[in-house]
Amino acid sequence: MKTVEILSPAGSFDSLKAAVNASCDAVYVGGVKFGARAYADNFTPDTMKEAIDFVHLHGKKLYMTVNTLLKNTELEKELYEYIKRYYELGVDAVIVQDLGVLHFLHTYFPKLPLHASTQMSLTMGEGANVLKDMGVTRVVNARELSLAEIKEMRDKTELEIESFVHGALCYCYSGKCLMSSMIGGRSGNRGRCAQPCRMPYQLQIDGVNKGNGYFLSPKDIKTLEILPKLIEAGIDSFKIEGRMKSPEYTAAVTSAYRKYRDLYYELGEAGYAEYQKHRSGELEKDVRELSDIYNRGGFSRGYYEMRNGISMMSLERPNHSGVPVGKVVKNTDYNMIIELTEDINAQDILEVRKGNEVLYEYTVKTGESKGKKVTANYKKGLKILPGLSVYRTRNNSLLSRLSEKYLEEKSRIPIKGHFIAAAGEPLCLILSAYDKEIRVYGDIPELAENQPITKERLYKQLDKLGDTEVYFDTLTIDITGNLFIPVGKLNELRREGVQTLIRELTDYYRREEVTEKSIFTYSETNEQKSLAVSVLVQTETQLEAVWDNPHVKEIILESDMNSFTELTHYTQEIKNRGKQAIIALPHVFRRNSYELFQKNKSYLEDNTIDGYLVRTLEEYELLHMNFQTKKRLIGDTYLYAMNRHGAAYLKKLGFQGITAPLELNFQELSEISEMYQYYTVYSKLPVMISAQCLYLTGDNRDKKQINGISAEACCLRDSKEAYLYDRFQNAFPVMRHCRECYNVIYNSKTFSLLSLAGDVKKLNPAYIRLDFTGESRAETKNVLNNFIDAYILDKPFSEKETDITRGHFKRGVE
Q: By the 8 A CB rule, do 757 and 811 touch?
């Protein structure tokens, strides 16, 4: 049976050493460019070489992150030289989000294993298989999948599956979040997320205040208790989140998952269950230590056993919550007495809380035992009262123990040694580690005149490995005759042997130098196009407001705006009016949706439908490979053709239309404008696509995993609208899509390029696209007419910039 890999985060060299010393199987790290953690202590070219060699010397693997979206100039002018160095040094794989990067790396480094990042939000084996021909050997599945869906993925693909088992969860499907980007210009797709999901919001549903809290902040996941189920689901790699966390965190989590993984393989399924039954206290202790290191409102098991719900959310606190260690039992104006429910240590940090409010924080001077009472002074005037809870947010003893064990001790690898000395023959030292063996030779020894060297003396001298990376697991010595061997010669031989072995172990992973290649630039003739109007609608009233407009050439219908039968009624009416009818597939496409669309193929392939707006690779696989459709495929913004290679790859897959991404500015779009046919000029802009449901959270409920699929709301069925309000009272509309069970959170300001028609037309689009969400019939008609006046009839328009946003069309992202 293949053993599941333990894959640990390394946001610094200390974290990398901690992971290796805690017995990970592999680490994932970022370089100075193109990683999703731009603010981590990432690896420079020199430290990356050191990291690759260190990891390989210890029999581990190193995966490098290039898991962001690249602008065209970055890809064509920087990526090749950046990757070339690490490819030749022997990086084991590269983790990729951008389809253009994937296409580029497979073109120029065809032997480099590529891992499809969770930023691709892959939900099915069918979607993963699309990437097999591009050098992808592993898929990091979307974190929102259930155990059943992962089992299904295992059945549908031969690619390795890597799944997150511990650490932070994003509220949004990874790669589908524009909130940080649109609010503050720091793009999560570029590794610079400002984490607006960890900020407080007020939730209102139908005008009713559902309270204030961290409504977008999930608890961290912890899956130690269900580890056997994860193994049995067919996961190949257990991924631990945390490149921004401390080395001690990395060590603690890595060692815990390594421990219980090894126990499972050692004892088997039945033996492991029996072990847990009789030693449950051991697991509880290990979990308590993980909580002490970092937890966010406690832990959840993520989406493995629950579809979504309030118990997965950390509504009261968005950062480390600590662990309860006592209660205030008595107070005066300036001190309090705390009765301890846990041991505390010198230099621990404790917080006294009233609910979620931190009233007082202090550092412990002297440790004390559980059950004892301790006195702490505080500033007069604080409202400290008996009954208040006391939490520990830093366990100094635990951190010191982890540091001493996994950081301060030098990690060394065991080697085998065999020394041979015989009269008339050169000295020989044979060293081996893993499956590598080397031999080094010294001088021919002289015969001893009086005191021949002994085996004991030889062993003592050869075993002086000092500060090297190795130690002798076994050392055998064969000596024939009475020989004189100078100590200096033994030292030289030992040093040469160790250096040769280490070089052999690290050089094994080196690749041949890549010959310089000229970077091929994809380009197309940018012939002047006749500008047309494409409109996306989500309601019947919006449809009726646009379908008689003579300037509208194409109407895109959200697939869940009505039943499939009604959709074909709509498309027939659209065709009767001489327009193109396009079906927009869901923002999220999972197994239940895939099977539903399969069952309704006859409706979806109706001759009144001209094409599809495709948002995921799973949808592409269904349409192109399963349906073998001949209809037009249009790539939506979330397929992220940020560069020429990305657009070229989509066209290679068979897409006839590509929508320009929303994170490029006018200048960047101008450089590659020939690659795009669609430009969005009006939209509320979806800034988050989430498997969570704010209606469910507002109703204080959880939702278990579901087998079937229904368009009916599972809670608050009569509710019409929901809004999130940030601390500046900006309102973010929330729309629920119950059939596919996801929420879309829209930007607080409408994206509009009404007054920039001249600039947009310079990009030579085939279509301008207007996306409607909750607009009324009158609003829809008014907006459409304004854009037709500006773009088709060339009437000048101005807008109040305080009322709208131009997104990144002018400013761009870093």
A: no
- Do 66 and 101 meet the contact criterion of CB atoms below 8 Å apart? yes
Give residue for tokens 């210009």.
185
Encoded tokens for 760: 């947009």
* Nearest alpha carbon to residue 199 among 186, 213, 178: 213
Helix (H) or strand (E) holding 375: strand 373-377
For the chain, which domains are there? 5-180+217-301 (3.20.20.70), 322-408 (2.40.30), 419-507 (no CATH), 532-684+751-805 (3.20.20.70)
Distances (CA, A) of 646 to 33, 512, 660, 697, 765: 19, 28, 11, 37, 18
The yes-or-no verdict on residue 706 having pLDDT over 70 is no
Write down the H helix ranges in 508-634.
540-546, 564-576, 591-599, 601-604, 617-620
DSSP for residue 43: B
753 and 682 Cβ atoms separated by less than 8 Å: yes
Nearest to 494 by CA among 431, 559, 575: 431
Q: What is the pLDDT of residue 703?
A: 84
Residue 711: band (very low, low, confident or very high) from pLDDT cuts 50, 70, 90: confident
- Give the span between the Cα atoms of 112 and 102, in whole angstroms: 11
Is the pLDDT at 419 greater than 90, yes or no? Answer: yes
- What tokens appear for 434 in the block? 């893993």
Amino acid occupying residue 618? E
Distance CA 380, CA 334 (A): 5
Q: What span, in angstroms and rounded, lies between the C-alpha atoms of 227 and 784?
A: 54
pLDDT tier for residue 722 given thresholds of 50, 70 and 90? very high
Would you tell me how many other CB atoms lie within 10 Å of the CB of residue 706?
Answer: 12
**Strands 201-205, 208-213: pairing kind:** antiparallel
Q: Would you say 524 and 675 are in contact if contact means Cβ atoms under 8 Å apart?
A: yes
pLDDT digits (tens, 9 = 90+) for 109-152: 999 999 999 999 999 999 999 999 999 999 999 999 999 999 99
How far is CA 250 from each of CA 122, 190, 241, 294, 360, rounded to the nearest angstrom?
Answer: 26, 24, 9, 11, 29
Selection from 325, 33, 201, 339 nearest residue 688 by Cα: 201
Q: What single string gives the DSSP state of each residue in 185-205? A: S--GGGT----GGGS-EEEEE
Half-sphere exposure of residue 410: CA atoms within 13 angstroms, side-chain side: 10
- Residue 810, by phi and psi: left (phi above 0), alpha (psi -120 to 50) or beta? alpha
Distance CA 200, CA 198 (A): 7
Token duo for residue 234: 């067919």
Q: Which residues contact 408 (CB under 8 A, 6 or more apart)?
A: none
Q: How far apart are CA 127 and CA 146, in angstroms?
A: 16
Token pair in block for residue 701: 């409920």
